Amino acid sequence: MRLKDKVVVVTGGAQGLGRIFCEGLAQEGAKVIVADILSTERTVNNILAAGGEAIGAHVDVSDDKSIAAMSALALKTWGTIDILVNNAAIYSSLTFKSFLEIDCDEWDAVMRVNVRGCFQAAKGVVPIMKKQQSGKIINICSGAFYDGVPMFLHYVSSKGAVLGLTRALARELGDDNICVNAISPGLTESEGVSDHEQFSGPSTDHIVGMRAIKRRENPEDLLGALIFLSSDESSFVTGQSLLVDGGSAMN
Question: pTM above 0.85?
Answer without folding.
Answer: yes
